[in-house]
């Protein structure tokens, strides 16, 4: 596999960054994940815009122009012959002697990108539906910034696995924030799609925006507000969205079946609509 590191395309074993990289020492960096369908990038502009925002919130510069980022993504897709999969982009505040204080703004950021080839459209978990457990959300208060600080989501996913579930939904002050690496939704008994409103409590999913647009285009009713686990368990359907999982039905929450315990029609319809739209608009 060929990866991109600070201007160079190199075989993975030759790719190296400093032990003093602030990403390693302080989790001082942000990332993006863009899916690839038919060798093309899904919603690249959205991911680039969110990257720009994450960097600005942390007082970091864009490592290069959006056009250059696009060409690096495309070059890696070609070099690694990715027809379907993901492109990860990670950028850190760069290399400096260890100090909590940020290094000078002239310090070059570290930019790395790598690909993963895998089926994203045909996904067994989306066919079966995911089992979810709820876990307390003890992450920091700026979840709107897509930082590389992923320890708690990783721990939450392990807790879910230990409990025989696929993933976790995080709960704060009695209401669901989001999934470990996705946004969370329910479909109420009257057919309304409910998902948490945007704030610093959750990441503004790029897939969330696209799927809510699909839903509104399909004349589905959407409400952006918090909901509880009890409300989710009593819902007709539940699902998640992310660039890696698209729309993924949820069939069980804390051991209770959601609806009839099968992937629901709204989630299936939205998944199909989102994939169709993505095939058309990918670049
Ligand atoms: N919330 C969190 C915490 C995430 O990590 C992700 C995926 N990176 C999402 C939501 C979904 O965002 P997107 O649709 O842009 O992948």
Automatic annotation (TrEMBL):
- The UniProt record lists the EC number as 2.6.1.42
| Pfam families membership | Aminotran_4
* Keywords of this entry: Amino-acid biosynthesis, Aminotransferase, Branched-chain amino acid biosynthesis, Pyridoxal phosphate, Transferase
Example of a GO biological process term = amino acid biosynthetic process
Q: What are the coiled-coil residue ranges?
A: none
Catalysed reactions, as listed in the record? L-valine + 2-oxoglutarate = 3-methyl-2-oxobutanoate + L-glutamate; L-isoleucine + 2-oxoglutarate = (S)-3-methyl-2-oxopentanoate + L-glutamate; L-leucine + 2-oxoglutarate = 4-methyl-2-oxopentanoate + L-glutamate
Q: What protein name does the entry list?
A: Probable branched-chain-amino-acid aminotransferase
């Amino acid at each position: 596999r060929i990866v991109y590191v600070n201007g160079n395309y190199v075989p993975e074993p030759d790719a190296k960054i400093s032990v003093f990289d602030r990403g390693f020492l302080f989790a001082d960096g942000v990332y993006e994940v863009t899916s690839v369908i038919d060798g093309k990038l899904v919603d690249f502009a959205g991911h680039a815009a969110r990257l720009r925002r994450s960097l600005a919130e942390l007082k970091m510069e864009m490592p290069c122009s959006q056009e250059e980022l696009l060409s690096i993504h495309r070059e890696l897709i070609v070099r690694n012959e990715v027809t379907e999969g993901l492109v990860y982009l990670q950028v850190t505040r760069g290399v400096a002697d260890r100090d909590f204080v940020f290094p000078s703004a002239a310090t070059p950021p570290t930019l790395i990108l790598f690909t993963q080839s895998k089926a994203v459209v045909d996904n067994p978990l989306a066919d079966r539906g995911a089992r979810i457990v709820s876990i307390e959300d003890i992450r920091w208060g700026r979840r709107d910034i897509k930082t590389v600080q992923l320890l708690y989501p990783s721990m939450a996913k392990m807790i879910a696995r230990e409990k025989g579930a696929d993933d976790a939904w995080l709960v704060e002050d009695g209401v669901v924030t989001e999934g470990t690496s996705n946004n969370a939704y329910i479909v109420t008994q009257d057919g309304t799609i409910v998902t948490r409103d945007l704030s610093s409590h959750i990441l503004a999913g790029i897939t969330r925006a696209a799927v809510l647009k699909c839903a509104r285009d399909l004349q589905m009713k959407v409400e952006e507000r918090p909901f509880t686990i009890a409300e989710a368990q009593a819902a007709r359907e539940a699902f998640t969205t992310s660039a890696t999982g698209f729309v993924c039905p949820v069939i069980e929450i804390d051991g209770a079946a959601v609806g009839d315990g099968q992937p629901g029609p709204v989630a299936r319809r939205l998944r199909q609509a989102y994939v169709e739209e993505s095939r058309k608009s990918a670049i």
